[in-house]
Specification:
alpha/beta; Rossmann fold; seven-stranded parallel β-sheet; two-stranded parallel sheet; 11 helices; globular; binds 2-amino-3-ketobutyric acid
């Protein structure tokens, strides 16, 4: 059975449910969606983060374990969101500590979300995929459509999520859309990712004046400043369906070496000491990921273009981190 698809334009106010709302992406996405005038509902296994800075009356918060299909069905049947952003996931480094749990949360979670959304005729599902879907030996920059041979359970489950979403789109007409996020850098601390060395360089340089990164200085993966990442998700959601030639898109911003990030941090935070001590497990994951992504399809289909490079991001981010640390 095909679903009726409501149009999701920039001027339409939608009711939106975000899974994994307490995470690094969720917290900034919620603010971005509220700024655009949407009715937003947060959900997470964890309680509402105290630092979210959004009044409880503007953001109903639901306890949600995405592995619980019954609970998910009840929430979607009761709240009837137009759009679901599915962010809940265990990231790559933490995922390797418990692959079984990662499979249940990430793979089971995306199946449950798609199934509940299909049953209750949710108009659109946005999915946060990642550069971790790629494995070694690919062209540089990596194009959109290549063999996906990830080396982590996180990557395996994200490939599974992309494929399942494509299936629900073809089989049931569910409007599934996904971006492959680079490592994201923001003032909100990440948890359990392998790209965390990049945001940690900023936060720890400001907080403690020093940081020992768990990677080699020449490590180079695709990175993005969070405001660009949030804009990418929202702009993909608002793009007319007929302009989209696929369900999943590479998006890219910049790909500095870890050493270049350290130099940018040291310029913005004089006196900060940034050193490198590569951890073999996390280094192997980083080395399996692409150096850079080719996002030509996102640019052509829905006009994607990043605003921030390393220098612009550093200038914007450092005062934000200082303000957050002073407030806490
Ligand atoms: C991670 O490091 O696991 C994530 C990602 C790149 O998807 N930040």
């Amino acid at each position: 059975m095909m679903l009726a698809v409501a149009s999701v334009g920039p001027s339409n106010s939608m009711k939106i449910l975000v899974t994994g709302s307490g995470g690094q992406v969720g917290q900034d996405l919620i603010r971005g969606l509220l700024e655009r005038g949407h009715e937003v509902h947060g959900s997470d296994v964890a309680s509402r983060p105290s630092a979210l800075g959004v009044d409880a009356s503007r953001l109903p918060w639901h306890h949600l374990d995405v592995t619980d299909l019954t609970g998910l069905r009840k929430l979607i049947a009761r709240e009837r969101p137009d759009i679901v952003y599915h962010l809940a996931a265990i990231l790559s480094a933490r995922g390797e500590e418990n692959p079984g749990l990662t499979y249940r949360v990430n793979q089971g979670g995306v199946y449950n979300v798609l199934e509940a959304c299909r049953e209750h005729r949710v108009s659109q599902v946005l999915f946060a995929s990642t550069i971790a879907v790629f494995g070694p030996g690919l062209p540089d920059p990596v194009p959109n459509d290549v063999p996906l041979q990830p080396t982590t359970m996180y990557g395996v489950t994200k490939v599974g999520g992309e494929l399942l979403g494509e299936y629900y789109n073809k089989r049931y007409g569910l409007d599934f859309r996904a971006v492959r996020f680079p490592g994201l850098i923001s003032a909100t601390l990440p948890g359990g990712g392998t790209s965390d060395y990049a945001p940690l360089m900023y936060v720890e340089a400001i907080r403690k004046g020093a940081y020992e990164a768990f990677c080699r200085a020449d490590t180079r993966i695709p990175l993005m400043y969070m405001p660009d990442g949030i804009r990418a998700l929202i702009e993909l959601s608002e793009a007319p369906r007929e302009q989209l030639t696929r369900t999943t898109y590479n998006i890219a911003a910049f790909s500095p070496t870890a050493e270049a990030i350290a130099a940018a941090v040291a310029r913005a935070v004089p006196g900060a000491e940034l050193t490198f001590n590569s951890d073999p497990t996390r280094q192997a994951i980083l080395d399996s990921w692409p150096n850079a992504l080719d996002d030509a399809h996102a640019r052509a289909d829905w006009g994607w273009s990043p605003e921030f490079d390393l220098e612009r991001m550093t200038a914007d981010l450092v005062p934000k981190i200082r303000a957050l640390l002073n407030a806490s």
